[in-house]
Amino acid sequence: MTTDPGAAITLAELPLRPELVGEQPYGAPQLDVPVMLNVNENPYPPSPKVRQQMAAAIGELAGTVNRYPDREARALREDLANYLGFGLGADQIWVGNGSNEVMTHLLQAFGGPGRTLLTFTPTYSMYPEYARNTHTRYVTVPRRRDFSVDADLVVSAVADHRPDLLLLCTPNNPTGTQIPVSVIQEIYQQVDCLVIVDEAYQEFTEVPEDSALALLPSCGRLIVSRTMSKAFALAGGRVGYLAAARAVVDACRIVRLPYHMSAQTQALARVALANTQEMLGQVEVLREQSQLIQRWLRNQGLQVLPSQANFCLFGRFTDRHAVWSDLLERGVLVRETGPDGYLRVSAGTPEEMAVFRDSLTEVLPNHEVIGYHEEV
Length: 376
Ligand code: PMP
Description:
It is a single chain. The chain is an alpha/beta fold and 376 residues long. The protein contains twelve helices and twelve strands. It has two domains: 26-44 and 282-366, Aspartate Aminotransferase, domain 1; 48-278, Aspartate Aminotransferase, domain 2. It has helices at 48-62, 74-84, 99-110, 127-133, 151-161, 181-190, 246-255, 263-274, 276-279, 283-299, 320-329, 350-363; strands spanning 35-36, 93-96, 116-121, 137-142, 165-169, 194-198, 222-227, 240-243, 303-304, 311-315, 332-333, 343-346.
């Protein structure tokens, strides 16, 4: 008899859904190291002033925590609408615990058995999981050789696969490639499915206002997804959102669990939004760090994909895992992701990037660089 109550049964003995057998929980390694450049976070914590406001807001809530929170998260959605601009109102905004949850709501409402989601790879590695969890068929088509997508590629893929949902990530994780708004418009006009544009990293681009949000008034099947986890420096708060026609929001409201946004999450996000200028205050620094590191990596003779986001892919290495481990040994955590041979590094503070550069300089002579991707 075991004394460990957790060992009373094994996963193999449980009636797990067959399609989940052998699956691993999603996630990059969460290691406590000095320089964390692996999940594209904003490395700057809130100022003491904002922290105080957050603590006060949570403190105030403690007095009514016996009550359910606002199920519609109305005030937060109003704040998000004001933040986005483009004439949007709260009823065109939907919000969830990270854009992961918002995207899941979309697939619960519009995907499901018999429905197909189409996207272009390499792209964000959670997309297949949203599909799996909602029993939606997941179909991918490779991006162009330079990892861009254009209207011809997308429209012909849509004709081939007849998706119910088309998912375009811009700037794309992990390549950093942007899709111009004009191309999104061209695509939209030639397809009849829902078009989801994931703009998780939009605030880091050169012209953040150049967004698919501008197309919403004339494009009822268009959905633009955003997050407060990246530029907005609120990854721990778990707030993602979308902007779309009211009807899309109404569909999400049908599938969401009641009270899905905790009172604390709503309050934290509202404090962050009340301090928008400050929360986004370091975006310019991070944009610059991203461009500087791309240039520096190229100068080391490495291949770097031109990125408009706060991260970039560099390589290619015969053994990227060995490079990843050598960097980790020096206290620098990057991400093993993307096409073969590449590593992804997020833009950190100038001090963090200096440590990254020094560490990579030390490590590089021990590894074989295989130059250009054969398809580039
Ligand atoms: N979309 C993209 C392209 C991402 O890279 C991420 C985070 N890595 C997300 C969505 C999800 O972000 P969150 O759930 O934290 O809002």
